[in-house]
Amino acid sequence: MATGEYVQHYHIVRLSVLGSGNLRQTMLSLPNNNGVQREQALVPVNLDALGRYPSNSLANFKEFAAQLKIETTDIDEYFIITRILVFKLPTETGIPG
Amino acid sequence: MPTRTFTVTDLSGYSISQSLGAYGPSVSDNNFGNVNFLGSHFSGGTIVSLVNSSNYNQVGTINYLLFPVIPDGALISRYRIKIPFTATGFFRTTGTGTPSVSVNVSIFSPYPFDISTAALIYNSGVNPTNLSESLDAYSDYYDFAVPLTKEEFETLFATVTLRTVISLVMQGNSSIEFDYSISLNGGWLFEVTYDVPAISIWYKSELIDDVYYFVEAVEIPTGDDPPIDEFFYTLIGPIEDFEEEVWYLWYYDGVYIESPLNPGDPDYPVPDTPPWEQVGIVAQSLGSLDMGGTSEVIFQGDPSGIYTLVPGKRNDTLYDSESSEDTTDVAIPNPFIKTGFIS
């Protein structure tokens, strides 16, 4: 599906990640004129309990475009990400017609 | 509820008017004119002494007019005054009959007020002692509630207007010739409580100046016989200890605050300015207030600004340049990554 002209529904974030601590993920929209982005915080991933499986985080974020912010906040937390996969589906079209 | 006991001999706060009517047939006929007694007559002791009064209609009257000191601007919501009373009547007669001596206490007020005689304590051992005409014609209770027994009198609680008279009649049976002493001992003679509509009564108005009470004494004898050869009547001592309680009502910030302030009492000083003119702290508390938690000191010293790379290290370390052994590990401030925009 061609991108850019659809309102997308971002619904799954899948990460191949190693590390320790709580990995915090946030969906961010395109910024407005003031640089403010609409945010949606996803449920933090406990990296210590993740093991060898990828993490799947549910999202419910509808925007023309979105970016994913991943961070840790506490001391001695770290993460190593080898793969980021964001699942989305187009819901509305912006193509005139 | 604090009360204040003060000495009447301090007359600075009171207006006193006394009259002694020696020959009038009633208390309202003071032919003797006004005689002013000041000072020592209020310290106790003999108030009036009538000797060899062959005129059996002789009436002596003493009025005490006491005005409380009320600060300007105060409203009186309740005014209670109790008079300690110890009276000893002595009369000698050579005739026969039933002479009596009455002690009248009158209360004048332009406002309706409640009078409670619950505080009345009199010596029931005096026989006979009777009460009559406790409330006179100015009382609402005159027609149907004249207590005649001690129990009735003590439980009387009447609302009266304008005037009431409490009479204590000391009565003794005489024979041919006898000396008879009778006494009412101790306690508060009566207790008056004004519950006035405070909003409508302002001190320094014309109304409040009319609130007073006085004690009437002594009327001897009643009836035609026997003639009294000698009589004296004594108020003993405790008139100087009468208890006064004034409740002031302050209007402040939209509400009326009732305060048992007593004039002249250093424990309850009258404010120089009414509360509604006072500006200051209206609420003060002790303790502490936590404003969202406490801040933690993570490092004390002179940080060096030199970074040391340590493999596998997951935090930052602050080094004190003055003491190389003093280090503090702190978290790396929220390391994060961002993807590009996915569309």
Care to describe what's here?
The complex is a heterodimer of chains A (97) and B (343). Chain A is mainly beta and 97 residues long. In chain A, 0% of the residues lie in helices and 61% in strands. Chain A contains no helices and 7 strands. In chain A, the strands form 2 sheets. In chain A, strands 2, 3, 4 and 6 form a 4-stranded antiparallel beta sheet that branches. Chain A has a 3-stranded antiparallel beta sheet with strand order 5-1-7, with no helix packed on it. The model of chain A has no long low-confidence stretch (mean pLDDT 90). Chain B has one helix spanning 150-155; strands spanning 4-5, 45-51, 75-84, 87-93, 100-116, 129-131, 157-171, 178-184, 188-195, 212-219, 228-235, 243-252, 255-259, 316-319, 327-330, 336-338. In chain B, strands 1, 3, 5, 6, 7, 9, 10, 12 and 13 form a 9-stranded antiparallel beta sheet that branches. The chains are: A mainly beta (97), B mainly beta (343). The interface between A and B is medium-sized, with 27 and 16 residues.
